[in-house]
Amino acid sequence: MSENRITVLTEEPVARIRPEVYGHFAEHLGGCIYPGVWVGEGSSIPNTGGIRNDVVAALRRLAPPVLRWPGGCFADDYHWEDGVGPRSERPRTVNMWWGEDIETNEFGTHEFIHLCRMIGAEPYICGNVGSGSPYELRSWLEYCNFAGDSTLARRRAENGASEPFGVRYWGVGNENWGCGGTMCPEDYGVEYKRYATYLHDISGTELFLIACGPNGNNPDWTRRFLSKVYTSRRGPRMHGFAAHYYCGTAGTSTEYTDDEWYALIHRAMGVEALIRQQRAVMDGYDPERKVGLIIDEWGAWHQPEPDRNPRHLWQQNTIRDALVAASSLDIFNRHADKVVMSNIAQTINVLQAMILTEGDRIVTTPTYHVYEMYRHHQRGTSVQTRFAGPDISFAHEGQEQALPALSGSASVRDDVLTLSVVNASAHDEVEALIDLRGASAELSSARVLAADDIHAHNTFDAPDTVAPADSAPLANGNQVTHRFPPASITVFRFKLGS
């Protein structure tokens, strides 16, 4: 019997995994919106109302629960009225943050809501605090949500939407410690309270207001902000608190050593410390956890590709990035009692993208396949899962470090157990006993994402180099042994009995 063991405690629930944990993020940056989403109604690329049909079809397969827009840094220099009304009359503005590209404003509020409805996602609008005003954000909210006979509601109807959009998720600024205004936490606390005062639940839509959190795991920033906003027993009008966590890079997007392979995955798993420590600070002010922890930007951030505009943040996406995504999502699942939303950066053509486009061609990335395989965790109840396996030693930047070979998470929904397992070993398979405790189980399906080359990635000419395949079958029973391929992600689904 293998010494390595994965123990799933089916009768020890953690919490329900909110579907928003599998959220996405689309910013007006590089090729994300133009032409990743928007090609215009006159394009030869098949589209519906200007939005690419192939991208919509691909995203729908992921069951995306929420989509964050329009930024990112772009949000705090975006004025929503530039993006409504006849497109031919919308102003051409300069994208100051991302390469001084001309922003045509063809893709605005109505187009974003249309995209969300096409892919089945809830809209999450990030408002402008850095260069905007409370009145501007309050007016955007009224434009989107008011069902009565106001001037802004009439204007929305004239622009093609007689019924309100009912947007629930509103971010009060983005990275206000940096591109959102270079504020100290106390100053942002003052601004947050001022803006939130004017963001009301109207026409039956109950808002979920999200405050900007720290850059990475910075407990001091969080403590100082919360000290400023918790000035009464009732606390602030706030429902989410959003940290950002980028694990950066090691090597380049497609060229790296074995040690750099391990270093990036190790950095990605550092988000677990952020979750524990940020929630601990929040609990000091919010012991009832009325405010949820969010990581609404996260992922790998590689060096710019040499043949592309460095301000467009286009990067290739390999099997290593897939393990970064899977390891992170497993951590979010395991901490379902703490994490209420996450939004990987970004959806198309930017950073750790789901999709890359080139003209009328499209390719889904290894990270896309992780989201496709993990979609069954959405709305499941996370259960305690223990991994006992070998540690991998590696050296990076002059330091010896260790990484667990096996990690993952498990959830139960409608008497089906989903178990996801990452084998981070670059070259060695790992045999482990899967011990399902608390219920009888029958294997329903097993899929694996793996590659013989740890640098493998999909291209427009070879789009299926890294793609899921059926895994080796398991014997039925509560205890089964499985060999996990190197550099792999495996997702099992078991039908549970009594």
Provide structural commentary.
The chain is α/β, with parallel strands linked by helices and 498 residues long. The protein has two domains: 5-10 and 383-496, Immunoglobulin-like (Sandwich); 18-379, TIM Barrel. The protein is built from ten helices and 25 strands. A nine-stranded mixed sheet has the order 23-22-25-20-19-16-1-21-24, covered by helices on one side. Strands 2-5-8-9-10-11-12-13 form an eight-stranded parallel barrel, surrounded by six helices. It has a two-stranded antiparallel sheet with strand order 3-4. The longest helix is centred in the middle third of the chain and has 16 residues, at 319-334. The mean pLDDT is 96.
Q: What gross morphology would you assign? A: globular
Radius of gyration over all CA atoms, rounded: 23 Å
CATH fold description of the largest domain:
TIM Barrel
Fraction of residues in β-strands: 25-35%
Oligomeric state of this protein:
single chain
The CATH superfamily of the largest domain appears as Glycosidases
Q: Mean of the pLDDT scores? A: 96
The low-pLDDT segments are: none
| Sheet/helix structural class | alpha/beta
Secondary structure tally, helices: 10
Helix proportion: 10-25%
What kind of sheet is the major sheet? 9 strands, mixed
CATH class categorisation of the largest domain: Alpha Beta
The rounded distance between the terminal residues' Cα atoms is 26 Å
CATH architecture of the largest domain, please? Alpha-Beta Barrel
What's the total count of β strands? Answer: 25
Total number of distinct structural domains: 2
Strand order of the largest sheet: 23-22-25-20-19-16-1-21-24
